[in-house]
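in:
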């Protein structure tokens, strides 16, 4: 999956990411990947649900991948951060 159809969810308002998803679908993408880490995971799920339920009823969650990444902190101690990728596809 290339980054050109990926949306990385961070701390911006949810509707910014919803608009980005809808824009990618309207530009001809058949699949959009919503990616998030840590505390942004709930925002990524909100984005997927808003796109599906409010704006594009012909989109469904094709795949959901969860995982853990190890990140080194400034103090040198590694910490684990949860990740999620939600693949939305057109029917």
């Amino acid at each position: 999956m290339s980054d050109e159809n990926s949306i990385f969810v961070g701390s911006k308002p949810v509707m910014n990411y919803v608009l980005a998803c809808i824009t990618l679908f309207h530009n001809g993408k058949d699949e959009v990947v919503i990616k998030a880490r840590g505390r942004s995971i709930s925002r990524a799920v909100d984005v997927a649900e808003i796109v599906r339920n409010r704006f594009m009823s012909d989109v469904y969650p094709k795949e959901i991948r969860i995982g853990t990444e190890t990140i080194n902190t400034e103090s040198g101690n590694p910490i684990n951060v949860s990740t999620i990728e939600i693949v939305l596809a057109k029917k």
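note: The chain has one domain: 3-90.
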